[in-house]
Specification:
Length: about 525
């Protein structure tokens, strides 16, 4: 019995170096000790960064993000410091990145789609009120002249202001003037050469005179003298209205993220509010966006389908030809065939854009003897060029896929078909193709989804041009939905409209999901058939 116990005990691993995630035993190997030190140091660094991040978030008043960050890092510490939980130790990094870069992005995009986020609605109401007052300020005609000194702390700037009666006060853009004998500790006074270096930041300084922003701000134009500036718009906090002191016009909160007058005039900027389904309704009711959206959607399906089809057809053809048993020099040919796949797609798009230039491009000047064919200027020729360039970029991938699939087909099936009298074409059509589709169908679906959102080739080659003439938005004949979303989000003739762009992104997600689900069901049916 004692021998059995000793044998069982000796069979249990006691060296922590065998598993870097297992709690250390009494005996540590050098490798185990090194792993322990590395783990402790990494966790210490992560925890230190977390403490700093939480402190910054709390200082900014973002309590939700601070709590979430604390919970995530606490969970990571629990997983890696607790003995066992080996699968969790390997899965945790991937789950964290999945949550940050996928789940959070999807949820946040969904939220933005139901707001009016954009150029003039990108912050809170408090920020909008402050900005409206600051942008409508003018120098007070009888303002006394103040002597100022400019100070800097990290990336913050402040003013030490001396009144005509000799009283000194200090303030920043975020902190109103407070009486002080000098700048707080840690602030460094800027000399003339430094003021010139940071002149943009110094000119942008607006130091509030008091806690009431209607009292005005102190501004300097040279870093030595300053004056009081007040706004022609006065904000009434109790009534939540702006009043133009010159005209008497009153602006009220219209509930849509703007201060609006009875005449319909609005003050800018506004602020971000939830507007429900308005972005989705706008996309299908406004003629400036609806008509181009319909054409872009149709072209997106055509572009994705044709690109996938021609890439697969050319790749399969080359795979069959270069897989012939009697062909010599296969390796050389295969290397040459996959060369386009080795170049970055963005660089290739720019190169082809130059080659297809109407006046100076290689295609027109050299290959076509000086012809003036508008490859990228005519809508249909531009679409053809986009599909051709995408075929150039993608056929090598399909060639590799089809080559691997063909080489994995059982030889006995082909031999049996030959013995039954089938010719080469009949063997390819009735034997090889069905088996080939079982292997490559999921990849064709993935390729279609990729081409549906193939931003790079469109933007690098044509930037969506030539433009549609019946809309003020920068949307063109070769734009697909993702490039249209990009232009709507980051300026395409109508300003930046993040809410509308997010709504269109959700539509793309729904379309791609439906196409993928239907296609995979067909793939399953194809597998069952074979």
């Amino acid at each position: 019995m004692a021998d059995v116990k000793s044998a069982t005990k000796s069979a249990v691993p006691t060296k922590w170096g065998d598993d870097p995630f297992r709690a250390p035993s009494r005996r540590l190997t050098p490798g185990g000790l090194l792993a322990l030190i590395v783990k402790v140091v990494l966790l210490a660094v992560i925890d230190a960064l977390t403490v700093f991040g939480v402190w910054v978030l709390i200082a900014k008043g973002d309590w939700i993000a601070a709590v979430l960050l604390t919970l995530v890092v606490a969970g990571v510490n629990y997983v890696y410091l607790r003995p066992g939980l080996l699968p969790g130790k390997y899965l945790t990094p991937g789950l964290v990145f999945l949550a940050v870069f996928q789940i959070f992005v999807i949820i946040y995009t969904g939220y933005i789609a139901f707001t009016n986020a954009g150029d003039q609605h990108n912050s809170t109401k408090e920020d909008a009120i402050e900005q409206i007052i600051l942008t409508s300020q003018d120098r007070v005609p009888d303002s006394p002249e103040f002597t100022v000194e400019v100070f800097k702390l990290a990336d913050q700037f402040g003013l030490l202001v001396t009144d005509p009666d000799g009283t000194t006060s200090f303030g920043t853009s975020e902190q109103p003037l407070e009486e002080a004998s000098g700048a707080p500790d840690g602030w460094d006074q800027l000399q003339l050469n430094q003021i010139i270096r940071f002149q943009d930041e110094v000119l942008a300084l607006d130091v509030p005179v008091s806690d009431d922003i209607n009292d005005g701000t102190i501004r300097t134009s040279d870093g030595s003298k300053a004056y009081v500036y007040t706004s022609s718009l006065e904000y009434d906090e109790a009534a939540d209205t702006f009043t133009d002191t010159e005209t008497g016009q009153v602006y009220v909160d219209d509930g849509e993220g703007n201060f609006r007058a009875e005449s319909g005039e609005t003050l800018t900027p506004g602020w971000r509010v939830v507007i429900g389904w308005d972005n989705f309704a706008y996309a299908f009711t406004n003629e400036q966006i609806r008509d181009p959206l319909v054409r872009v959607t149709i072209w997106t399906f055509a572009f994705a389908a044709l690109s996938t089809l021609v890439c697969f057809a050319l790749g399969l053809f080359l795979a069959v030809v270069l897989n012939h048993p009697t062909l010599r020099g296969k390796k050389i040919y295969r290397v040459l065939v996959i060369l386009p796949y080795a170049f970055p797609a963005y660089l290739t798009g720019l190169v082809w854009a130059g080659m297809l230039n109407t006046e100076f491009g290689f295609i027109n000047e050299v290959l076509l003897g000086g012809a003036q064919i508008p490859w990228l200027g005519d809508p249909w020729l531009a679409r053809f060029s986009v599909i051709f360039v995408n075929m150039w970029l993608g056929y090598a991938y399909m060639f590799l896929v089809c080559t691997g699939a063909l080489q994995s087909l059982p030889d006995d099936i082909v031999e049996a078909a030959k013995m039954d009298g089938a010719g080469a074409w009949r063997i390819f059509r009735s034997v090889k193709m069905p088996l080939l589709f079982v292997a490559v169908a999921p990849l064709l679906i993935a390729t279609f989804a990729y081409n549906f959102n193939n931003f790079g080739v469109i933007y690098m080659l044509t930037r969506g041009n030539p433009r549609f003439t019946d809309t003020t938005l920068d949307i063109g004949a070769t734009d697909i939905m993702i490039t249209m979303v990009y232009k709507v989000a980051f300026g395409g003739g109508g300003g930046r409209d993040l809410g509308l762009a997010s709504a269109l992104s959700i539509l793309i997600f729904i379309i791609v999901t439906i196409v993928a689900v239907v296609s995979f069901r067909q793939t399953k049916a194809l597998e069952d058939l074979n």
